[in-house]
Amino acid sequence: MEISQKKFLNTLNLLLGPEGTKKLVDFFNVPQKAFEVKEGELKNLNFQEKTIKNFLQKREKIDPDYEWKKLEKLGVKLITFDEREYPPLLKEIPNPPVALYLKGSLLPEEKYFAVVGPRYPSDYGKLVAKEIVPELSLTFTIVSGLARGIDGLAQKLALNENQRTVAVLGSGLDIIYPPENKTLAQKIEQNGALISEFPLGTPPKAYHFPLRNRIMAGMSLGTLVVEAKKKSGALITALLALEYGREVFAVPGSIFSKTSEGTNFLIKEGAYLTRSANDIFEKFDLKLWAKKKKEVKFQSEEEKIIFEALKEGALTVDEIVKKTNLSCDKVTSTLIMMEIENKVKRSQNKYSL
Asked: CATH no. for residue 261?
C-alpha cells in the first residue's frame, strides 16, 4: 500500500480503532475513501450514533500528514496485508488486523512460535521455561506478549541465546506495558520486533489483551503454554490457536497447582503433553533444529559424558555420578567448569543443558 493511503489508514485507526477501521476499509477498499465516508453511509454500516458523532467531529480537526510524522519520528512502520513483512499465517485467521504497527523488523522467512504463561508463575513454571525456551528459540522466533511472568521471561531467554523474538502489545507502541519491561522492549526492538494493531497513544485496556492474544496465536505455527489458570489469558491464547488449526503444546503440572489447571485441561482436551523442546520438534522439522543447534566443544571426555547424560533431563550431582560411573569429585569439578562456560545451568541443586 502506498504511503499516501497508509496516512489515511493510520488516521482512521486513531479515530475509530482497529475494528471500526477494518469495517470501513473492507467496505471501501481504499483508506482515503473510507476516511471521506459520509454520515449516511456510516449509518448504513450500522455504526452507533455516538461513534458517528465523535468521528465526524474529530475528522474535521485531525491532520493525516501530522499524525504520520509522529510515526516517522518514533521509527514506527505501518505494514499492511499486501506487504512481505505481514506474517503469512496471520492472514489466514477469521479476523486478521487490517494493519500492524511495527518497531524493529519482521522477516518473511521467519517461523513464529508463541510461548505464554501466567504473570505470576510458580518456581516450577520458571524452571520449565528455562529448560525449554532456549532450545526452542534456536529454531523458531519466539512470540509473546511482553507481560510480567512467563511472557517476559520467554523473551529474555530467547535474547540470551542471541535469537530473535517478537512482542505483541495490547497498547500503542509508544506505551510500553508493564513499564518495568521498557528495557526489555528496547532489546527486542533491536533483535526482533514490537508489533501492535493499536495506534499510538492507545492505553493498555483490559479488552485489548484478548485481541492481542489472537495475533500471537494467529501468526505462530504453534503455541506452548507453560502454565495457566482455568481462566487466564494464556488459556485464551491456546484456545484461539486450536480454533485456528494450530498446534498447541502444554506442560503438565501438579493436580494441586492452580497454575497448572489450565495446562492439565488442555492436555486432557488433546494438546500435546510437553516435557522438553524435543516434544515440540517431533511435530515439526527436526533437521531444521539440528542445523541451528549450537555446537558444543568439550574440554575433556568427562564433559562429553556428563553432557550426554543431561540430554535426558535435569539431574543432581548424585544422579550424574550414578548415571556416568564417574567419581563424585570428578563430576563436581567438571560441572563447575561447564557452568562457568555456560554449557550447563544449575537450578535447585539440579544441572541441565
From this structure: 3.40.50.450
Do 217 and 346 fall into the same domain?
no
Tell me: do 286 and 306 sit in the same domain. Answer: no
Please count the structural domains in the chain.
Answer: 3
Same domain, 193 and 286: yes
**pTM, to two decimals:** 0.79
Give the pLDDT confidence of 244-258 residue by residue, as tens digits: 999 999 999 999 999
The residue from 291, 310, 333 where one domain ends is 291
Q: Which domain holds residue 343?
A: 301-352
126 and 225, same structural domain? Answer: yes
Residue type at 117 in one-letter notation:
G
Over the stretch 63-94, which tens digit does the pLDDT of each residue have? Answer: 999 999 999 999 999 999 999 999 999 999 99
Is 89 inside a domain boundary?
no
